[in-house]
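seq as requested:
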Amino acid sequence: MPTLFDRYMNGEYHAVWNELRVSEQLTDGQREEAWLVATETMKRVARNANRLATRLEENGWKALTSLTICAFVFALLVFHLLNESRSEVICVNS
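struct tokens:
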């Protein structure tokens, strides 16, 4: 039987996160799986934030500092993630 992490890596993003959300209490094994899934999720967030920041700069967007770019991209990602729970979102593998 595939683990939560295996399923997440095979594209079952929503199903895995939904299973983690409905669990009232995680076992030790589930906590380890949740940690692996969360770590991979944050790696994907970082890759996508970097990609978006690069594209903004390539299209002439001038930030006051590199922190401004990071804050802007982070705000966009948070907005997207908050809205993801309310509607269907297409997940892109990168």
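The helical segments are 4-9, 13-22, 28-58, 66-84.
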